[in-house]
């Protein structure tokens, strides 16, 4: 599922491709991914110039020269692509923006859970969707404010997009591991020093993932993610990825927290006292 690091990688790709370009045609191959009707989108897009891109959590925005924005949400399997001739369209291209450069920007989505919408502005979309500040922009004091009043489990709270936008399931596990905090801590018991560690871990995990263009196998061996075994492990031919990078004899544990598969080190992330 495209998380914040993938969406930031897509945004950078689109920024190179579309900024300064005028949309010459709006091609819909499968209207399933449209969150705004096609007959509203086409006149809103064709003839407009794209003045920039931005991102909030897992949402990518193409900024139009009249102030409106095209919102791209990538669902379970969304991706972006570029091509020149119709025959070269990536497989599962659902929508394409034809640009005056002669290139086409493709919205690719095999499973069709992604959505393309028109919004009046990024701020209007953020308000309508009740999204908190982007996880990379979140400050220590905002994080402190959002945790101190809450008597709920830490992990589900960090996943709540109203608290901050862009923290998904594996990211929260990695953040809690790097910050050495158990996922079932009650939010208002987290100390000021721990909030600082959490904030630093959010920055570390997201900037590392973006620098690796979200290629998980290139993440440092000090990351918990290798225990998830999505990919070949970082240590082929051994089972060392099943153990804590800091405690080579302690096996990473898995349990369900708030209904979500959760990985943690029982030594680094001590269970909360009763
Ligand atoms: Zn450990």
UniProtKB/TrEMBL annotation:
Domain FPG-type: 224-270
Transmembrane feature ranges: none
EC number(s) recorded for this UniProt protein: 3.2.2.23, 4.2.99.18
A GO term, aspect molecular function: zinc ion binding
Subunit structure: Monomer.
Gene3D superfamilies to which the protein is assigned, alphabetical: 1.10.8.50, MutM-like, N-terminal (3.20.190.10)
Reactions performed catalytically: 2'-deoxyribonucleotide-(2'-deoxyribose 5'-phosphate)-2'-deoxyribonucleotide-DNA = a 3'-end 2'-deoxyribonucleotide-(2,3-dehydro-2,3-deoxyribose 5'-phosphate)-DNA + a 5'-end 5'-phospho-2'-deoxyribonucleoside-DNA + H(+); Hydrolysis of DNA containing ring-opened 7-methylguanine residues, releasing 2,6-diamino-4-hydroxy-5-(N-methyl)formamidopyrimidine
Domain Formamidopyrimidine-DNA glycosylase catalytic: 2-114
Protein name: Formamidopyrimidine-DNA glycosylase
Family in the record: Belongs to the FPG family.
Cross-referenced Pfam families: Fapy_DNA_glyco, H2TH
InterPro entries per the UniProt record, alphabetical: FPG_cat, FPG_Glyclase, FPG_N, H2TH_FPG, Ribosomal_uS13-like_H2TH, Znf_DNA_glyclase/AP_lyase
GO annotation terms (biological process): base-excision repair
Cofactor dependence: Zn(2+)
Domain of life: Bacteria
Keyword DNA damage attributed: yes
UniProtKB keywords: DNA damage, DNA repair, DNA-binding, Glycosidase, Hydrolase, Lyase, Metal-binding, Multifunctional enzyme, Zinc, Zinc-finger
The UniProt record lists the keyword Hydrolase: yes
